[in-house]
Structures are given as structure tokens and as C-alpha cells.
Amino acid sequence: MSAATIQTPVKAPAGEGRISLRANVRHIGALARRNLLQIKQDPESMFDAVLMPIIFILLFTYVFGGNIAGKGNEQQYVSYLVPGLMAMMGMNIAMAVGTGVNDDFKKGVMDRFRTMPIARSSVLIAKIVVEVGRMLIATTILLVMGFILGLTISTSVLHLLAAVALAMVFGASLMWIFILLGLTLKTAQAVQGVAMIVLMPLQFGSSIFAPTQKMPGWLETFTDYNPLSNLADASRNLINGGPVADSVWMTLAWAAAITLVTAPIAISKFRNKTN
Q: What pLDDT does residue 69 have?
């Protein structure tokens, strides 16, 4: 076996473990700025965040709205749908993180970062910071479209902001799963394929698009444990009124559990990954 065929992980620079919190924050800021400059140079990368909420709300309102709320009552359905789509936005934006990380490794960008005297976590956290920003843009567009189509807030602006913040927190936790997929699978196409297999049952087997009471018993049981249902119900009750404590705490518990399990694995995988 020739030396050229032997692949070894890029070793961390000496002293990485002694990087201060202040320096770590500065590194995250610099790396986030680099990611933002990439978006500026490639504005087409924002198409999903800009167009996806518009397409989804129009499509589902006029395909499902009449059947669920009754013909001519699509406006009523908008108030049910929009909080659910806020949960869906997070999953779809999060998927792009995994493909982006995988692509950066193929280009050798991540190898250059791993030779620098920075914490390994800062590279991944910077990506999450920028993607949360993209998620916020997508959610803002979704809400604007919702208001145009008849969305009303039955609680207060503070409750609406709380629903948005909850969606951001849960979406950020999901990004660690997709980062891990991006670091584990060989190609961006594989990441996207596996992500869709995960996304489809979670999205459609939830309360995002329709109430779960008329679903088959086994499916209704699945939706009860589906974290997207918890997030959709929490956002819906925060905006439309209703009990929020259980669904909010369940959503936060899911977000914390996902992050605590997947983030350390993803960082370790990033540190030791070979091309």
C-alpha cells in the first residue's frame, strides 16, 4: 500500500483545549461571517429559505384548507396551518446544514479549518448560527404570507415571538442531527436521501397539517410522541390561545435531549473524520 492511499485524521493543533470562551466566541463570529459572505456570493443558496414558505403555505392552504375547514373557510385553516409550518421550516432548513458540511469536506475547506488553532465546535456552531438566521428569514416570510391570507393572532405579539423562538431552538437542535449525517455519509446526495426518509413520516405523521383525532389509532399514537406535533401544538396554542405548558416543555425537552446526544458525537466525528 502506497503512502498516498493512507488517510489519517487531521490532528488538532496543540493548545486547542486551552482556548478561552472569549476567543471561542470570536472564532464563531469570524466563521459565521465567512458563511454569510458565501451566501452573499451565491444568493441562489437563499432560494429555499425565501421560496419554500411561500410555496408551502399556498399549496397546503388551497389543497387541504377546503377539505379540512370546509370549502370557503380556507382563512380559518391558515390559523391552524401557519404555526405547524413554523415547525416544518426548521426541519427543511436543518437538512441543508448536513449537505453543506458534507460539501465543505469534499472541497477541503474543513481540513483547512482543522489545522487552525480554533475549537472544533466553533466551526459547527458558526454554521448553526447562520442557518438559524436563514430559518428566521423563512419564518418571517411565512408569517407575512399568513397575515396576507388571513392569519390572526388571538393572544399577543409576545406570544407570537415566543412561538418563533421555540421553533428556532428546536430547529437548531435538529441541525446537529443533520450535521452528524453530513459527517457520516459519503455524499451530499446520500445525506439528502436519508434526510427525506426521516423527514417525510415525521412531517406528515404529525399535527402540522391536520388534527390527529380522526387518524387511525396507531398513527395517532405515533403523532403523540412525534416532537414535531409537540412543537406545532405549542406554536398553535401560543398564537391562537390554549394551554401551552405541556407542549412547550415537551418541545424544550426534545431539543435539549437531541442536542446533548448528537452535538458531542458530531464534534468528535468532525475532529476525527477522514476524507
A: 61
pLDDT winner (highest mean) among 16-20, 42-46, 116-120: 42-46
> What confidence category does residue 6 fall into, taking pLDDT thresholds of 50, 70 and 90?
very low
Task: Give the residue with greater pLDDT, 139 vs 67.
Answer: 139
Axis-axis angle for helices 157-184, 188-204 (nearest 10):
140
* Type of residue found at 24: N
Q: How far apart are CA 63 and CA 40, in angstroms?
A: 35
> Lowest-confidence range among 103-112, 132-141, 149-158, 236-245?
103-112
CA triplet 136, 271, 117: central angle to 5 degrees? 85
The widest CA-to-CA distance across the chain, in whole angstroms, is 71
The grid cell for 153 is 393572532
Distance in Å from the first CA to the final CA of the chain: 18
* Lookup result for grid cell 426521516: 198
- Please tell me the predicted confidence (pLDDT) of residue 103: 84
Cell triple for 237: 396554542
Q: How far apart are CA 98 and CA 104, in angstroms?
A: 10
Of 182, 173, 193, residue with least CA distance to 273: 182
**Residue 159 near residue 153, CB atoms below 8 Å:** yes
10/108 Cα distance (integer angstroms): 11
